[in-house]
Amino acid sequence: MRPLVIKLGGVLLDTSEAMHNLLTALGDYLKNGSRPLVIVHGGGIVVDNLLKRLNLPVQKKNGLRITPSDQIDIIVGALAGIANKTLVAQAAKFNLNPVGLSLADGEMTVAKQFDPELGHVANVEPNKADLLNNLLSSAFLPIISSIAVDENGLLMNVNADQAAIAIAALINADLVMLSDVNGVLDADKKLIVTLNSAQIAQLIEDQVITNGMIVKVNAALDAAKILGRGVDIANWKYPEKLTALFAGEIIGTRITA
Q: Can 7 be counted among the known catalytic residues?
């Protein structure tokens, strides 16, 4: 059965109830001998909290975090350290057999700097699936932070959506993007079950899809084009629905190319 990559938004790491809900659903799902699962996560809220405690500025350009050389170690510590090991610790409590990784482990991805003005920020491409396939065949739950290493051995920060797409492409997996929204809503605030690129363009033009949801939808649309199949945007708040989602049902909005 095709593996499933679950992309987690950083807010979940700051919400104990949401973490409990998600891991309960994962535990229920994995008990039934289901398809292999991989978690890919960011952790912007963890980074922001750590930078604040250290009295360092949070800078962004076009919604992407500027990562100067004097901050990359701190951001790596927040994402590959605090965020990743928090998830591993919680997953271990639920007996999910977790393994904490970064995008660089086992040369899973190749990273290239995205924009010199952003500093240590990269895009990643799928590279070697050996490590991931070995872990999945041995019933481990890989939990992958969005930290990569480029060809010069420099640590790089990667947008978590883009990281999840690369990992899904690497192992030919389905992709679900979990966050604190139910999915895409129409002008009457009703959930839209499926959307294609033409419908998305129209809803953005009509200002029905706005602000942060534009970023989410475009990331899912990019993923759908790369993977050649629908990508789900769904909410982590309802554990009873998550099990159905992991089994392939639509509980939020499915984006297709």
A: yes
Binding-site residue set for substrate = 43-44, 65, 157
Q: Which residue has the higher pLDDT, 224 or 63?
A: 224
* Catalytic, out of 9, 42, 100, 161: 161
Annotated binding residues, as ranges?
43-44, 65, 157
Of the candidates 9, 42, 183, 216, the residue annotated as catalytic is 216
SS3 readout for 159-194: CHHHHHHHHHHHCCCEEEEEECCCCCECCCCCECCE
Expressed as residue numbers, the domain containing 47 is 4-255
Determine whether 44 is an active site residue.
yes
pLDDT tens-digit series, residues 104-153: 999 999 999 989 999 999 999 999 999 999 999 999 999 999 999 999 99
Residue 82: give its domain's CATH number: 3.40.1160.10
C-alpha radius of gyration, the chain, whole number? 17
- For the chain, the domain total comes to 1
Catalytic residue among 9, 42, 44, 183: 44
Phi then psi for 123, rounded to 5 degrees? Answer: -100, 150
216 catalytic per annotation = yes
pTM listed for this prediction? 0.94
Dist. CA 50–CA 40, nearest whole Å: 21
Residue-wise pLDDT tens digits, 200-213: 999 999 999 998 88
